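Course exercise 7: structure representation. Students receive a sequence record and must write out the corresponding structure in token form. The form below is the worked example handed out in class, using Pentatricopeptide repeat-containing protein (180 residues). Read each field label carefully; the graders check that inputs and outputs are placed in the correct fields and that the protein name is recorded exactly as given.

STUDENT ID: A-19
EXERCISE PROTEIN: Pentatricopeptide repeat-containing protein
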Amino acid sequence: MNYHRLVRRFSTLIDPRNQNPNSTQFTISGKFERRNRNSIPVPHRTIPEPLGQDLDYVNVAHSHLVHSDWVKLDRLSSSLTPLRVKHILLKIQKDHVLSLEFFNWVEAQNPSFLTLDSHSIILHILTKNRKFKSAESILKKIHQSCSIDFPSKLFESILNSYRVCDSSPCVFDSLFETQI
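STUDENT ANSWER:
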């Protein structure tokens, strides 16, 4: 008989229709009520859109990359800019193998076109596809060639490009786990 009372009390805690009207109710109000608890509070920064010749270049280079026409891409290398590199990486980010090939190709053509933003984009692409060894290799390589305030600048760049790349928290795990 006591068992049934215990079950009844417990069930009234679970079922909101059977709650005691004298019980204390807690409500969340204000800005916390609307907050999505699953979202990551990261800034949303965008990269300027390519216009005119930049847009044409990105589309043509993307076509050559998709068709693996590296000879035609080599002819375009003289017109490459850091903005174009970022947008090509963003355009091919669904294919992590092609993204890494393009990143390595740009590094061989002219390493100065690989900015902190383009490094963070490739890190997002690789970690999203669980290619942690490749991401670690890139992290170590850029750490060897950068200044003392590198970790804070890299973290900020990764944080700012997080939403643009539709990334996952794995990028931060990779950054923190890499012993640099």
